[in-house]
Design goal:
It is a single chain. The chain has one domain. The protein is built from no helices and 7 strands. The chain is globular, with a radius of gyration of 12 Å. Helices cover about 0% and strands about 45% of the residues. With about 80 residues, it is mainly beta. The mean pLDDT is about 75. The strands form 2 sheets. Strands 2-1-6-7 form a 4-stranded antiparallel β-sheet, with no helix packed on it. A 3-stranded antiparallel β-sheet has the order 3-4-5, with no helix packed on it. Strand 4 and strand 5 form a beta hairpin.
């Protein structure tokens, strides 16, 4: 699997713990977390919505498809955690 660092997509790297199946096109850790670069994340009606500072949606994850979201440290560990 290739690993790409995409800070141009946002200033913060977020980790999402999810029960979704692993995919070679998405960077996931051995624990199954996927990682998303975005300026902000919000929880709305159970959905995770990742946005740029300008308000553009970078990614959204439906309710029931995630267990926790956290700001990720460089070693993939959580710095702060939000759970559903």
């Amino acid at each position: 699997m290739k690993q790409y660092w995409a800070k141009h997509q946002g200033r913060t790297r977020w980790g999402v713990r999810t029960p979704l199946e692993k995919d070679e096109q998405v960077y996931t850790s051995d624990a199954g977390n996927l990682f998303i670069w975005s300026d902000a994340v919000e929880v709305r009606d159970g959905c995770l919505i990742f946005r740029s500072d300008a308000g553009a949606i970078r990614c959204a994850i439906a309710p029931g498809r995630w267990d926790a979201v956290f700001e990720a440290a460089p070693d993939d560990t959580p710095q702060s955690v939000e759970t559903r």
